[in-house]
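User: Predict structure, ligand magnesium ion.
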Amino acid sequence: MSSQGAHNQVALQPIEQAMQRLLSSIEPVTEMLNVRLEHAVGSVLAEDVLSTMDVPPFDNSAMDGYAVKFEDLNTSDNLELVGTSFAGAPFEQHLEHGQCVRIMTGAVMPEGADTVVMQENTAANGDTITITVKPRLGQSVRRCGEELTKGQVVLEKGRQLTSVDVGIMASLGFAKACSIRPLRVAVISTGDELKPLGTELAPGDIYDSNRYAIIALLKKLGVEAIDMGCVPDDREQLMAAFIDADSRADAVITSGGVSVGDADYTKEVLEEIGQIDFWKLAIKPGKPFAFGRLPSSYFFGLPGNPVSSMVTLHQLVVPALQKLRNTPVKEPVTYHAKAKKQFFKRPGRTDYQRAVFSTNEKGELVAEPTGSQGSSMLTSMNKANCYAVLPQNSGSVEIGEPVVIQPFDYLIS
Ligand code: AMP
Ligand code: MG
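Assistant: Predicted complex:
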């Protein structure tokens, strides 16, 4: 049987099954690396982060105003001003009955004070402060430890650090994050028709755009992309490129050369050095896909069409890389919207149509396709803010019918 015949016999594989197979094959990287906090955003924590202290570390004022003893206000609205507590320069004495202290946001509460009256609710006449609006007991005071207690888990192992997480770690005094070492991912484009940027295109040539888009997404993901350039459809050159990439990376991502016509060729090369399965996914765009092992890396072969390569990278390879870097794989967030225009579809594959969601005048979530959905048209994707995910066996979605949308995450938008 020709291998082309073999391809045709392979049933289309539902995306959920492909995802399962990918994830179950991947053994996470566990090596750790201390990353300076200023470079830590996007890295994955290798250990839980515990709070080094109570936060806030002392009772302090949430407002600019006056620190008082609440019970004094039962007898008089007037208090004697005896000092100041500024952020970084506390009032050192004990507050006595009938006294108050001028206090600024973040400044230490003086001993003996229990409440802050915001400035707007006071009137000053020399050293006499009149409380014009009575506070509640403890108002505008941030209590020691009310946010975090010392030793508490603040950020869990496996978490991919956000900008806010970096701020939290800094507030706890961490100069470094103990992270999983960055993944190294080699990116290769394949195809005789692909020409590097900055060169003239001969008839039939196109610019190699996938490599740029793939590397751009990987950078956002926070992995180290190794640009392996573009390789023509040539046995020896492909072999050399795959071997080189494998020796340098944890994962190798190629685009092009996995569809039926090309696959036999790439397959031959890959099977010599690794164990690769060629799949036909029941998704659109992005039917052909290859996955397997090279001697020291995982191999992901994306289809060449630019939208197909981005969608398969985003939907399948990103979760696989997340598992590889030891971070929990999250289900994408989805919502139900109403179709504002028809979504044309034939049953058979799960469509990831590029769509725009918004709310209509009734406050309902609505979505419409971005127009032509050709798998070569990257502009169908940059006009979109979500995928409309249309189930494998369903047909078109008519106006007013429900449609599942998956808003683009930070990797795409
Ligand atoms: P293939 O999967 O190699 O059959 O390619 C499918 C389509 O995607 C063809 O039209 C290719 O020219 C195009 N293509 C493949 N690789 C790239 C690339 N790196 N950049 C842009 N288009 C590509
Ligand atoms: Mg090709």
